[in-house]
Q: What sequence folds into this?
């Protein structure tokens, strides 16, 4: 199974730890990020990562920018994407279990590599609870998005 990784210049600092963590969980990394601190636009990277998730090529996406905020806002514009901005393991567990989040975002200038690695492992290894009430709420998210388009 594959995980799409994307980062801008604010996320380059966390790249290596993030790649190691994804691979340690048994996933292959599809790298859509940059290796330098050259200036790029985070919406472009988020769009590429999200398209790999919605197409089914990748099971999950991991996005990193300076705060994680720009990437998470951008990712949540894509229909079918539920992106959680994470800075703790409890939220990583709950967003997989309750929201069935398929993309997560991190702030490269907010958290360090050790915490980032734990959050990613928690996110990738936690299943969706499959409870009816959670699926019902997720279905409503998609309805809201469709209504906005109409
Ligand atoms: C880039 O400097 C920075 O704006 C970006 O990484 C991110 O933090 C945006 O939300």
A:
């Amino acid at each position: 199974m594959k995980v799409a990784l994307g980062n801008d210049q604010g996320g380059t600092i966390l790249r290596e730890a993030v790649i190691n963590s994804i691979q340690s969980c048994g996933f292959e990394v599809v790298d859509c990020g940059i290796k330098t601190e050259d200036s790029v636009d985070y919406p472009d990277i988020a769009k590429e990562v999200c398209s790999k998730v919605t197409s089914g090529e990748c099971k999950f996406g991991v996005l990193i920018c300076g705060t994680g905020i720009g990437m998470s806002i951008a990712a949540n514009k894509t229909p079918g994407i539920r992106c959680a901005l994470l800075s703790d393991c409890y939220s990583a567990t709950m967003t997989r279990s309750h929201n069935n989040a398929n993309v997560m975002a991190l702030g490269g200038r907010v958290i360090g590599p050790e915490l980032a690695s734990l959050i990613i492992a928690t996110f990738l290894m936690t299943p969706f609870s499959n409870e009816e009430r959670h699926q019902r709420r997720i279905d409503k998210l998609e309805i809201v998005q469709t209504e906005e388009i109409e």
Remarks:
- DSSP finds six helices and five strands in the chain.
- The CA atoms of residues 23 and 29 lie 7 Å apart.
- The longest strand covers residues 2-7.
- Residues 8-10, 42, 65-67, 69-70 surround D-ribose (CB under 6 Å).
